[in-house]
Amino acid sequence: MSSITNKASILDDEKANILRGAVGTRACWMALIYEEACKAGMEKEGEEIIRRAVRRYGQNQGADIKKALDDGNGSLDMGKFAQAFGSPVAVNAFEAEVTPVGEAKVDIEYHFCPLLKSWQDLGYDDETCMKLCDMAMEGDRNMAKGMGLGFELTDTIANGCPTCRMSFYKE
Question: What is the DSSP letter of 67?
Fold first, then answer.
């Protein structure tokens, strides 16, 4: 039996549900690719390939965000980042709280994870969900790098915490 609690409470937001579906589909593909690699006796290779691909995606996404939200001095405007990352649709899809902390940090807390929901719906055990979550987090870690920011992940729902907590910050 799973020790992970990951239940959505915002159910009537059409746009958030569409985003959840798209995010869940991406999570499903990633998990099934990993599962097929494991079946082929290539667990370590499959994991590394997925991590490399997700890292690249995160770095590219981060570079695009930095370019779009440049403060005019070649630095990222953290207030604009908080607004972009905390769009109403994304906030509702992940049931998130996006909190700017001064001009140098943004804290984010997720109360629901559509990626994890997809893995749970596929029947993966808690340990596999934790591994898939960590692989997926390569995107956020490297999005931060692409933006020239630091990143800290302290809690994840997949690890049995009530929420996911992360911070993006200027170093």
Answer: H
Crossing angle for the helix pair 114-121 and 126-147, to the nearest 10 degrees: 150
Q: Taking a C-beta distance cutoff of 8 angstroms, is the pair 117, 8 a contact? A: yes
CA-nearest of 81, 89, 88 to 166 is 81
pLDDT averaged over 10-residue windows placed end to end, the chain, 171 residues = 91 97 97 98 98 98 91 82 91 96 94 98 97 98 96 97 97 89
pTM of the model: 0.94
**Pairing assessment for the beta strands 96-101 and 150-155 based on DSSP bridges:** unpaired
Cβ atoms of residues 23 and 114 within 8 Å: yes
The answer to whether the beta carbons of residues 158 and 133 sit under 8 Å apart is: yes
Q: How far apart are CA 97 and CA 117, in angstroms?
A: 19
